[in-house]
Amino acid sequence: MQKLFRFFLNLIPRPLLIRLSYVVRPVVAFFLKGKKYTDPIDGRSFRKFLPYGYEKVRENVLSPSTLSLERHRLFWLYLKNETTFFSERHKVLHFAPEQAFYKRFRKLKNIIYTTTDLNSPLADVKADICELPFESNTYDFIICNHVLEHIPNDTQAMQEVYRVLKPGGTAILQVPYEANREITFEDDSITDPKERAKIFGQYDHVRVYGMDYFEKLAAVGFIVTAVDYTKTLSEAEIDTFRLAKGELLPVCSK
User: Fold this and answer.
1) Pair (208, 161) in one structural domain
2) Do 235 and 117 share a structural domain?
3) What is the per-residue burial (b if ≥16 Cβ within 10 Å, else e) of 64-94?
4) pTM for the whole thing?
C-alpha cells in the first residue's frame, strides 16, 4: 500500500504537490500532536512522526508540521547553534529550497536570500548548478542539500559552488551516502527507473556516494570538515528530534 501511495505521489506535478501539502499538513499535524517527539525547526511536538522512504521505508521520521526529515533537523540544529547564519549579515544562496526552510529563511532580516534550481517553483533564479549565472566569490553561505546525487557531472557542480562561494564563506553540501561504502558507485548504463531506484535509492539518483565524497569535495578546493553533530547531543535529544545518529554534515569553507 505504501509503495502504491508513493507511486501515485510521483505522478503528481511538484507545484501541485506543494500546494496540496499546505492543505493536508495542518490536519495531519493536529491528529498526531503529543509530547514524545519534537521538531526543532518549529518547536512543535507530536506523539509520533510519519513514515518516509522509497525503496526502504523509515518509520517515525517525517515531521507532520514542517515535513522535515532527519537530515533537515540535523542541519537546522547545526546552523542555529554553531553558525552566525541567524545573527549576522550574510548573502545566502540556497539550491532546491526545502519547504521546511524556505519561508523561515525568507523572513530573516539579516540575510540576502536567493534560491535557485532548474525546476523548483520556489526558485528565484532558474539555473543549472553546473553553469551558474552568478559572479565568483559572491555568497557567504551556500546551502545545497541532496542535490549532487541527481547531477551527472557532480565535479563540475562542486566547482561551480566553490567558485561562487566567498573566501571565508561556508557551504553545507549534504548528500545521501553509505557509511560502509568506501568508493562512490555510479553506472550510466542503468536506465530503467525501477532498477535505478533499487540500486541508487531513488529513480532519479545517478550514484551512491561513499566515504570518498568528502575527498571529492576537497579535490575541488574546499576545506572540508565532516561534522558529526549528533556527538554533541544526548541520546534523549537524538531520539526526541528523530535524528540519524552519526550522520555527518559536510561543512565546507573556502
Assistant:
1) yes
2) yes
3) bbbbbbbbbbbbbbbbeeeeebeeeebebbb
4) 0.87
